[in-house]
Amino acid sequence: MTISFSKALGIHEAALNFRSERASVLANNLANVNTPNYKSRDLDFRQALSSQMNATSSNFAAQTTHARHIDASTLSTDDAGLLYRVPHQPSIDGNTVEDQIEHAEYMKNALAFQSSFQFLNSKFTGLRSAIRGE
After folding, report:
1. How many domains does one find in the chain?
2. Domain span including residue 102
3. Does residue 2 fall inside a structural domain?
């Protein structure tokens, strides 16, 4: 009998990947806080979660012609839910990054990432003890 990690972990693996991706987007925003005309971006968790739960087939179809080609079934043609953030206080130079809001969102994302990671860690601990028969 084999263990299906997708059934054992559920949506939590995708949530952890999303939190990691969002951390990258938020860090990019913070890195460009002084760049003129830079537009702040963010990912919508609800939209990403609903698309992940409703994903029955791939949006992108490609054929591989060689055994060493990379499978493109996980590629997406859209911008993966990347949205522009509307600033509370727009800047004169056209930059929409608000330093305090970006830091707050980054910290909230970091806490959510840590909680998802701890949840997955406890799942793996449970699976390991089940395999060992403890």
Report:
1. 1
2. 11-132
3. no
Torsion of CA 129, 130, 132, 134, to 10 degrees: 70
User: What does the alpha-carbon distance between residue 25 and residue 15 come to, in Å, rounded to a whole number?
Assistant: 15
CA dist 16 and 93 (Å) reads: 35
Helix axes 45-53, 12-31, angle to 10 degrees: 150
Residue pLDDT, tens place only, 11-21: 788 888 889 99
5 lies in some domain: no
Is 4 part of a structural domain of the chain?
Answer: no
For residues 27 and 42, the answer to whether their CB atoms sit within 8 Å is no
pLDDT at 133: 85
pTM, two decimal places: 0.71
